[in-house]
Design goal:
350 residues, mainly alpha, Arp2/3 complex 21 kDa subunit ARPC3, two-stranded antiparallel sheet, 2 strands, 70% helix, Cobalt transport protein CbiM
């Protein structure tokens, strides 16, 4: 659901940047009383895990589409909405700047739709009331499923509205929304299942994390070592190897655009869009979650002269050391950025 700049106008992109910056500043202010020497590292480790998990697109049967975990709800349940918002913003910023996943002009909209909706709407208004103060396994499962579905529906509708108000892509509202909402209903169901499984694991290993987070308290001297190690190993395995098994089908947004326009991508307008594209081209040293090919290989690929290479690209699983390297680097970068943000806010609060 990473929006490209071709979908968004400078005015709408600017508004979403401003709204996202304001919410991020609010989160940074509110989270300071919750941060301690256990929650800050947890922000980093969870950020690395969600970054890695987003590399794995799962197929949506019968559609030719795919989806991936957004992770905002999972982060909110385990970190609280404010720390989760800063962590998902770190993930999406790293993806945008260094992996060219989502446009730079659209970054504010992407953080809002994919992260802040889950953190500030789905978690406090749906998940938290349903699980109450003493959540059972059944409550957690149901609340995760419902909150994830509604969060994804709102996020997908946010993409449609941003596209509509931008008015630069000529995507008809009715056709676009009738594709975006159902496909993200299916993706939301899978996200809910994944979220429930992980939260139930945390509940078994260290239930104090869920209790302290629900109360908006620092984690304090609770046992978190097993959770840290498990999440770290999961991040390494997911980014380093499981990413090979990602579906090659287009994600829900690309699939919707393709079904409306006949093409998976839209032309990027000139002017300020080109300015942002040039910046992103310089910063994205691992575009598409892989090592950037030499210029001559890029030129050859663009004219489609190597059929063997095309077949290899379409192979599944796509065993590729470049993907593994990109995933591991991205996970480390996300871990570092989320940790630095958390540590900086912790020190600033003293």
């Amino acid at each position: 659901m990473h929006m490209a700049d071709a979908l968004i106008s400078p005015a709408v992109g600017g508004v979403m940047w401003a709204a996202t910056a304001g919410l991020a500043a609010y989160a940074a202010k509110k989270v300071q009383s919750e941060l301690d020497d256990r929650k800050v590292p947890l922000m980093g480790v969870l950020g690395a895990f969600v970054f890695a998990a987003q590399m794995i697109n799962f197929s949506i049967p019968g559609t030719g589409s795919s989806g991936h975990l957004c992770g905002g709800l999972l982060l909110a349940i385990l970190l609280g909405p404010q720390a989760a918002a800063l962590t998902i913003a770190s993930i999406l910023t790293i993806q945008c700047l260094f992996f060219a996943d989502g446009g730079l002009l659209a970054l504010g909209a992407n953080i809002f739709n994919m992260g802040f909706v889950a953190c500030f709407i789905a978690y406090p208004l749906i998940y938290k009331p349903l699980t109450a103060n003493s959540p059972s396994q059944g409550r957690i499962f149901f609340a995760s499923l419902l909150a994830a579905v509604i969060g994804l529906q709102l996020g997908a509708f946010g993409v449609v509205l941003a596209t509509l108000f931008s008015g630069i892509s000529e995507l008809p509202f009715s056709a676009f929304v009738l594709l975006m909402q159902p496909i993200h209903l299916a993706i939301g169901l899978v996200e809910g299942l994944i979220t429930a499984v992980i939260v139930l694991f945390i509940m078994k290993e260290s239930p104090e994390i869920l209790q302290k987070t629900a109360l908006g308290q620092p984690l304090g001297p609770i046992p978190v070592k097993n959770v840290f190690i498990t999440l770290l190993i999961a991040a390494v395995l997911t980014s380093g190897a499981l990413s090979w098994f990602a579906s090659a089908n287009p994600d829900g947004l690309e699939w919707s655009i393709t079904n409306v326009t006949g093409a998976p991508e839209l032309n990027v307008p000139a002017g300020i869009h080109s300015f942002f594209a040039e910046i992103q081209e310089k910063t994205a040293f691992l575009p598409g979650y892989n090592v950037k090919p030499p210029a001559e290989e890029t030129a050859a690929a663009s004219v489609g002269v190597n059929a063997v290479e095309t077949e290899e690209t379409a192979a599944w699983p796509a065993v590729d050391s470049g993907t593994s390297l990109a995933g591991l680097i991205g996970s480390v970068m996300t871990l570092a950025l989320a940790y630095i943000i958390g540590k900086g806010l912790q020190r600033f609060a003293r």
